Amino acid sequence: MDYKSLKTNTVVNKVDVYLIGVFTDKKLLHTGKSVIKSNIELAKKCFVKNNFTGDIGDHRTIDDLENNVQILFFGLGKKEKFCPLNLNRSIKGIMKKVNKTNAVKISVNVQNIISKTSNITCQLLISYLEDSFYKYTFKKEKSISKLRFCNLVSNNTIPNKVLRQNVSNGKSIANGVRLAKDLGNIPPNICNPTFLSNEALKLKKINKALKITVINETKMKSMGMGSLLSVSQGSKQPAKLVTIEYMPLRNKQPIVLVGKGITFDTGGISLKPSPNMDEMKYDMSGAGSVLGTMRALAEMNVKKNVVGVIACAENMPGSQATRPGDVVKSMSGITIEILNTDAEGRLVLCDALTYSQKFNPKYIIDMATLTGACLVGLGKYPSGLFSNNNKLAELIKKSAEMTGDRVWQLPLYDDYFEELKTNFADIQNIGGRYGGAITAAAFLAKFTQDMKWAHLDIAGTAWEVGENKGSTGRPVSLLVDFVLSN
Ligand code: BES
Ligand code: ZN
Ligand code: ZN
């Protein structure tokens, strides 16, 4: 959809639907002159007569016959509780209705959701609107929505330049989220490690300043990445380690984003049970979120140094597959006894994290659909957050709050590391029966001791199941905000 920022007065009569968010206080001051007085009176009467509450999900329509436009008031919930998450809920609900109509052109009044200090909400709005008619296009199905144009309307308190910038950044974030969603949804016979590395190379079209390097298995072998290679050896598909460097600034340490890119996780010889195994095509969502974030940042031309690293492999139980009990040597020199070949994410990530040290990261954050235990413990709403640095953890929490892309921190006590001890190597790749998300993170922490590192376990948040089954594109919006703010 095409977006434009507009000042009040100029839009009402040129669109099919004019959307106005209203809090539970039902005040309409923010609509300024864009809604003529008689409409305000009409709306107030309508609110009273039809018991409009302003709660999220509630909406009322009035017809402005004079200007030939429908004015659609939708609830934003309590003003004190307003946050990106609530905005997302409101937009999702109301757009479900708008998308079913014949409306082609809409306006959204953003006056009360934009603040002078933070622009991210306005940018996220575009992402939420785009999300409302996202369709995985493989089926070549027509979009249900006829929408093509959207005006974001505000009054004069926000400079037009700022609003225009928000529109453009919002579109870039939405593009990044869409890329992450598409990559997750593509079937695993197409989206294999080579496909992902080609997708990374395609990013060059977005911004020529990107430097993309694809490391193949021969090179990995020469660099001693025995752990990463132990995962792909049971598959016909060769592993790929891809780096995407975006370094517009000189002599500044980059933020490094590392993603788990298991394009399908059968479990390997420690084979997974059949039910829902198809969902393991989403096991590359960490890598997808890195590509989506890099796309958004490169499109925005941000003046920040960022490097994306994706560790791509397919975990299959072929005749050359790793056996439980095998011992491999990682790039760091640490030897690993592989007791469960289904704990493969940490095996590809540890070598990717060691390799990433060469970029001398300011911060390093990895994203991975790492453990079913994280999903069991936290459910599907927050991603699990782990870090060896309190300041970094706080900064990530702040970005999570700003974007509604929630995280919940879990501890990394010394005790968990004890569970990784074995008689046959430096460490083993699984912990005991309990706290599986944490022992997995503890494993990664062994490889990041010299860096300010955080890990996001996105096993519960990267995709939805059931009726809305599909990739969510999380945590792209969190990562974009993190890079922009740090
Ligand atoms: N990709 C899975 C984790 C996963 C499972 C994410 C279900 C989302 C839904 C990961 O590779 C895995 O299989 N982890 C094992 C670790 C265990 C063997 C220690 C798990 O969580 O069961
Ligand atoms: Zn696994
Ligand atoms: Zn996995």
Topology:
Elements: E1 2-7, E2 17-22, H1 37-49, E3 59-64, E4 69-75, H2 84-98, E5 105-109, H3 120-132, E6 149-154, H4 160-185, H5 193-202, E7 211-215, H6 217-222, H7 226-232, E8 240-246, E9 255-265, H8 285-300, E10 306-315, E11 327-329, E12 335-337, H9 345-356, E13 363-368, H10 372-378, E14 383-387, H11 390-403, E15 407-409, H12 414-418, E16 427-428, H13 436-445, E17 453-457, E18 463-464, E19 470-471, H14 476-485
Parallel strand pairs: 1-6, 2-4, 2-5, 5-6, 9-10, 9-13, 12-16, 13-17, 14-15
Antiparallel strand pairs: 3-4, 7-8, 8-10, 11-12, 14-17, 18-19
Helix pairs in contact: 2-3, 3-4, 4-8, 7-9, 8-14, 9-13, 11-14
Residues 265, 283, 340, 342-345, 369-373, 375, 430, 436, 459 line the site of ligand BES.
Report on this model:
The protein is of the alpha/beta class and 486 residues long. 34% of the residues lie in helices and 21% in strands. It has 14 helices and 19 strands. The strands form 4 sheets. An 8-stranded mixed beta sheet has the order 7-8-10-9-13-17-14-15, sandwiched between helices. A 6-stranded mixed beta sheet has the order 1-6-5-2-4-3, with helices on both faces. A 3-stranded mixed beta sheet has the order 11-12-16. Strand 5, helix 3 and strand 6 form a beta-alpha-beta unit. 53% of the residues are buried. The mean pLDDT is 94. One zinc ion (ZN) binds next to loops.
